[in-house]
Amino acid sequence: MKGRVSHSPLRTSLLFTGLTFVQPAVNFLLLPLYLAYLTPSEYGLYALMVTVSVLAHHLAALRVQDAMGPLYFRFGRQPGEQRVFLDGLLQATLVLNVLFLMVALGVGPWIFASLFSDGGAPDFFPYGVLAVLIGVLNSISGPYLGFVKNGRQVRRFAALHLGLVAANVGAQLSLIVVLQRGALGALEARLAGPALLALVALAVSARGLLRRPDWEHLRAAFRFSLPLLPFAAVVWVAAFADRVWIERSFYLTTLGTYSLLLALVTMVTMASHASWNGIQPFLFEELSAIGGPSTRRLQQLARTYFSIPFLVGGALAAGAPLLHALTDEPGYLAVLTFATAGIAVYLTESVSIFLRGLLTHALKPAIISIATTISVAIQFGSYIILIPHFGINGALAGILAGQLILIAILLISLRTKARQALPSLKILAPPLILIPLFLLPKLMGHFGWIASPWTGILQFSCIFLPILGYFLKKED
Q1: 468/192 Cα distance (integer angstroms)
Q2: Which of 58, 134, 148, 213 is the most exposed, having the fewest neighbouring CB atoms within 10 Å of its CB?
Q3: Is residue 294 in some structural domain?
Q4: d(CA 196, CA 453)
C-alpha cells in the first residue's frame, strides 16, 4: 500500500504514539505565546470554547467515526472492502455532521445562555459557532485518519499530523501575533488544521462519496458507536465540567488561571499514558504467563511505570517559578499558588490509570465502566458543592475525590475478582511513598522551615533521588 512502511510492530507502535503526541506537545509549547498576547480572561474564554469543541466532536456524528478502529480488519477479507468501508463511514459522518451543524446553529444561542453565566459569558456567535466548526471538522477527518493508521501508512500519517501542526502554528502566529485578534483569533486559528485534514479526507474519497453505501458496514458501525455515547458524555463531564462550573461561579479571569494550571499539570497525565503504553506489552505478557505472573516482575514493571509521571511532576514543580520570566500578569502568576496541589492530584491519577489497565487485561470492562461512572458522579457533585465556595481549590478537591473513589473501587475489584493481576499491594509502593515525599517540602515551606524559592527544587529532589536510588534498579 502506498505510504506504508515495513517496521516491527513495536517500532511502528512507537512511531504512531510519538506522532499522536506531537499536537499536545506543540499546544504546550505555544503557552508562552498565549501568556504574552492573551489576557487571563481571553485565555479562559479560549479554553472554554476548546471544551465546547471537544463535546461537539463527540456528539456531531454519534461517534460513528470511531468504528474505523475495531472494524477495519473485520471488513478486510475481500480486496478493496476496507476502502468501501471508509467511503461509507465518510458519507455517514458527513451527513450527520451537516445535520448536527444545522441543529447547533438553531439551539446553540439558547444552550449558551442557559449553560454559562450572565456576566461576561461568551456569545454563541461567533465563539460558539467556531467551537462547533472545530469539532465538526475533526469528526469528518476521523474515519480517514483511522484508515491510514490501521493501514500502517506511517509516512502518510506523519504528513497529515505534521501538516495539522504546521497549519495550526502558522495560523496562531498570524492571527494572534500579527493581527492581534485575541481569543477570537486563537479560535479562528484552531480551525486551520482540522479544515486541512477534512479537505484531504474528502478529496481522497471524492469518488467514493458518490457510491451507494454498504448498509451492512454502516449497521455494524452504529452498533459499535451508539453504546459509546453515554460513556463519552461521562468522560466529557470528568474532563471538562469543572471549567464550565468555574465560569458559572466566577469570572473568566479565574477560568484563565485554572486553564493554565491544567495545561501544565496535565503533562503528568500525558506522561502516565505514555509510560503505560511503554510497559503494557511487557506487563500483559507477564500477566498471561503460564503458571501465573511473578510478583517481583510486576513490581519491577510498576516501578518503571510510576517513575515517568513522577519525574515529570517533580520537574514541573521545579520549573514552575520560571513562569515569572514569561509573564508579570497576576492572573497567570496565581497558578503558582495551586501548582503543588494540582500536580499531586494528577499524580494520584497515575494510580487509577495503572489499576484500570490491570482490569482491562482481566477482561472486566463492566467494572471499569461502573467505577468510572460512580467516580464522575462524585466528582461532579463535588464541583457543585465546592467550586462556588473554594474556587480552584474546590475543583482540585473534586478531581481528587473522584480519583480516590475510582482507585478504591478498582482496587477492591482487583483483589476480589482478579487477584492474579495484583497479587501484592507492594506493587503500589512507589506512589504511596513518593506522593508524601513530594508534598513534604511544600509543608516545610508553609511553616517557614525552608525558603520558598527552594521548595520546587526540593520537591524534584524528593522524587528524583528515591527513584534513582531505589525504584529504578539495575534490572529495570
Answers
A1: 44
A2: 213
A3: yes
A4: 45
Calpha distance 55→241 (Å, rounded): 11
What separation in angstroms does the CA of 446 have from each of 98, 115, 320, 333, 422?
55, 38, 17, 18, 37
SS3 464: helix
Same domain, 171 and 244: no
Long-range CB contacts (< 8 A, 24+ apart) of 419-426? Answer: 420/287, 420/292, 420/293, 420/362, 421/287, 421/293, 421/358, 421/359, 421/361, 421/362, 422/298, 422/355, 422/358, 423/292, 423/293, 423/295, 423/298, 424/295, 424/298, 424/299, 426/295, 426/299
pTM of the predicted model, to two decimals? 0.87
Which residues span the domain enclosing 164?
9-226
Distances (CA, A) of 211 to 140, 156, 206, 327: 18, 24, 10, 55
Tell me the C-alpha distance between 43 and 49, whole Å.
10
CA distance 31 to 186: 12
pLDDT tens-place string over residues 379-430: 999 999 999 999 999 999 999 999 999 999 999 999 998 888 888 889 999 9
Domain count along the chain: 2
- Same domain for 451 and 312: yes
Cα-based distances in Å from 271 to 294, 358, 427: 26, 18, 19
Considering the domain architecture, whether residues 391 and 344 belong to the same structural domain is answered as yes
Kindly state whether residue 253 falls inside one of the protein's structural domains.
Answer: yes
Kindly provide the b/e burial profile for residues 58-91, where b requires at least 16 CB atoms within 10 angstroms of the residue's own CB. Answer: bbbbbbbbbbbeebbeebeeeeeebbbbbbbbbb
Tell me which of 182, 208, 226 is where a domain ends: 226
Residues 376 and 464 in one domain: yes
Start-to-end CA distance of the chain, whole Å, equals 38
Domain end (from 226, 246, 276):
226
Asked whether the predicted pLDDT for residue 137 surpasses 70, the reply is: yes
398 with 444, same domain? yes
Query: Could you tell me if 198 and 272 lie in one domain?
Result: no
